[in-house]
Write a structure and sequence with these properties.
This protein is α+β, with helices and mostly antiparallel strands. The protein contains eleven helices and ten strands.
Length: 300
């Protein structure tokens, strides 16, 4: 009889464990298996210390709403992580992750981080415990970063000096890139679809002196980041350009449109899209500068 009585607490414990198994499993996963310490992201050499209206850096890697989800993804991308995971703690979180991925909205976050921390491909998975894992394949290899960074430093030493204002430095960089680069019409005319082509990256204009809009924009972003001038890139459906904070105001810079393709092959250097306001940009009615102002909020 005493033996049976001794089993009663064990049976009660087993029953409670069965009834509350999901809560217990969730507790163990959140507090032990996926503890917050596992989520902490250490920055790499290209992490930018900027917060924007659309995205902000965060130290809390459990998402309780969509904005916190976006901030977590931005923080990990900004810190240059190749693989990371975090935990969702609200009802529609998994759905929000799928929407961000399927609608290509995740690409917008690329525009807020350093080009060297950009991804060319991202894989996102989730499990039954609302753990989200992201695996990143970077756009820039270590070798390309080393070569490109060396070239940026050489150019800055050649065309800039300490007596120049930030505005003068930006103008000098703009003019250098436009003067030494031609738009890659060969790529365009061949109808290529190659995201690894140098013309899409800063190495295109800086080494090969040919670029598409992504190459022009990445190159300018590298210089702006070296100068510690806050900036990000704005993309529309078929174009990308720079947006920079200077003298307490935000301005657009579009090197692609300031380096037009001419019939006779002559190299024109324009400044129509150099440090202009959103009002000025929209007055041109190019058809290529229609962007999501709910994402690029400073550029309303």
């Amino acid at each position: 009889m005493k033996g049976w009585l001794a089993l009663i607490p064990l049976l009660i414990l087993l029953c409670l464990t069965f009834v509350y198994k999901n809560d217990i499993a969730t507790f163990l996963v959140q507090k032990i298996v996926y503890s917050k310490e596992s989520f902490l992201a250490s920055p790499n050499d290209y992490t930018l210390n900027y917060d924007f209206e659309y995205v902000q850096n965060t130290n809390d890697f459990t998402a309780n709403n969509k904005q916190e989800l976006i901030n977590i993804l931005y923080t990990f991308l900004n810190n240059g992580k190749d693989n990371f995971y975090f935990y969702c703690n609200y009802k529609n979180c998994i759905n929000d992750v799928n929407i961000l991925t399927d609608s290509n909205q995740l690409v917008n976050l690329n525009n807020y981080v350093h080009p060297y921390n950009n991804y060319r491909q991202a894989t996102i998975t989730s499990n039954a415990f609302n753990q989200i894992e992201v695996t990143i394949e970077k756009s820039y290899s270590d070798d390309v970063i080393k070569a490109t960074d060396k070239k940026v430093d050489e150019i800055m030493k050649e065309i800039l000096n300490d007596n120049m204002t930030d505005r003068e430095k930006i103008i000098a960089i703009h003019n250098y890139i436009v003067e030494t680069t031609t738009y890659d019409t060969e790529y365009l005319n061949a109808n290529l679809v190659d995201i690894d082509n140098p013309s899409h990256k800063a190495i295109g204009p800086l080494y090969y002196h040919k670029a598409l809009c992504g190459g022009y924009t990445d190159a300018m972003a590298l210089f702006l980041n070296k100068l510690k001038i806050p900036n990000y890139r704005i993309s529309s459906e078929n174009h990308i350009w720079n947006y920079v904070y200077l003298d307490n105001n935000w301005y657009h810079i579009d090197l692609t449109w300031d380096d037009p393709v001419t019939d006779d092959g002559s190299n024109l250097v324009l400044d129509n899209f150099l440090l202009i306001t959103t009002e000025q940009l929209e007055s041109y009615h190019t058809g290529y500068h229609n962007y999501d102002k709910s994402v690029y909020i400073e550029a309303k």
